[in-house]
């Protein structure tokens, strides 16, 4: 199956009260693990690519070629959207030109009027090609210089204005944070989430920082309109843990255990299992 825009899968998720997982990819192993997990659970899936991961994988063209070829060779039949995560204005244009089927333009660090103008431009360029667009209002918190902030909370009025541009999915800060949540985290702000959904109609909402959020909060967020949940850190930690275990057990020193195809296998399997668990938790299993 060719890459698809995220619009239809997210509208279906919104109407059906489940969420589609958007899992960040870093290399071939990550991509393979996530695609196989989606196929095994018969779930739609989004592959997120940060600009940093884009550079790491030598550019957006390489990624589009790898993902489309892998969908074909693994005989993946579930809907797959290849999505730029936290794209800049130029990055979003570059990903569109390279054949991504979905992009996020993150203008949340600009003054609101500039975010609005740039969002409008990216939406026009993407929609002309049938590509879905995510925009962001109210930056998502995270670790900066070792200090973990308490996730920003978006202004519902600004969300209403950006949603009215015709964006396909809207990311809005509701106290969520990228990376690990601190012990004193206050949790998601459901009042603001409910208010944002009220003023944005039936717009699919996006929850960033999906790693480490307790299941009851995930379910409540989905019930209030979250239709896409981004997960990155947990895939990284399970991969690192499984790889460390392999090396600490001295497996790389046994026979040809140093072969990268063996060395990377436990981490890859750990990502696949985690993605299966998340798909089941988000309720997108069987929804392809
Ligand atoms: P985590 O790394 O906290 O899972 O967040 C992922 C994310 O939101 C990517 O945009």
CATH topology label: TIM Barrel
The structure class reads alpha/beta
Count of spatially separate domains:
1
Supply the CATH superfamily name.
Aldolase class I
Low-confidence stretches: none
- Output the strand order for the largest sheet: 1-2-3-4-5-8-9-10
Gyration radius from CA atoms, angstroms: 18 Å
Beta strands, count: 10
Keywords:
single chain; 288 residues; TIM Barrel; binds 1,3-dihydroxyacetonephosphate
Structure characterization notes:
With 288 residues, the chain is α/β, with parallel strands linked by helices. Helices cover 47% and strands 16% of the residues. The strands form two sheets. An eight-stranded parallel β-barrel has the order 1-2-3-4-5-8-9-10, surrounded by nine helices. Helix 2 packs across helix 4. The longest helix has 18 residues. The chain is globular, with a radius of gyration of 18 Å. The relative contact order is 0.17. The model has no long low-confidence stretch (mean pLDDT 95). Bound molecules: 1,3-dihydroxyacetonephosphate. The site of 1,3-dihydroxyacetonephosphate (13P) has 15 residues, from strand 3, strand 10 and helix 10. 1,3-dihydroxyacetonephosphate binds next to strand 3, strand 10 and helix 10.
């Amino acid at each position: 199956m060719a890459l698809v825009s995220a619009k239809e899968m997210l509208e279906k998720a919104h109407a059906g009260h489940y969420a589609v997982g958007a899992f960040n990819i870093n290399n071939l192993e990550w991509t393979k693990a996530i695609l196989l997990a989606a196929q095994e659970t018969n779930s739609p899936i989004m592959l997120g690519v940060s600009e940093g991961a884009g550079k790491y994988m030598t550019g957006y063209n390489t990624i589009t070629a790898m993902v489309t070829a892998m969908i074909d060779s693994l005989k993946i039949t579930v809907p797959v959207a290849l999505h730029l995560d936290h794209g800049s204005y130029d990055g979003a244009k570059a990903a569109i030109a390279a054949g991504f089927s979905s992009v996020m333009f993150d203008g949340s660090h600009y003054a609101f009027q500039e975010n609005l103008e740039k969002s409008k431009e990216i939406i026009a360029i993407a929609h002309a090609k049938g590509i879905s667009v995510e925009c962001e209002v109210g930056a998502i918190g995270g670790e900066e210089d070792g200090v973990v902030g308490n996730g920003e909370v978006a202004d519902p009025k600004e969300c209403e204005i950006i949603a009215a541009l015709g964006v396909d999915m809207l990311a809005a800060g509701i106290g969520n944070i990228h990376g690990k949540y601190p012990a004193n985290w206050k949790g998601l702000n459901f009042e603001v989430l409910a208010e944002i959904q009220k003023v944005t109609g039936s717009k699919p909402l996006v929850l960033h920082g999906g790693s480490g959020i307790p299941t009851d909060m995930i379910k409540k967020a989905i019930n209030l309109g979250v239709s896409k949940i981004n997960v990155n850190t947990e895939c990284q930690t399970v991969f690192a843990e499984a790889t460390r275990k392999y090396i600490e057990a001295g497996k790389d020193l046994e026979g040809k255990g140093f072969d990268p195809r063996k060395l990377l296998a436990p981490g890859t399997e750990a990502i696949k299992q985690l993605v299966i668990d998340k798909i089941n938790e988000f309720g997108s299993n069987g929804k392809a």
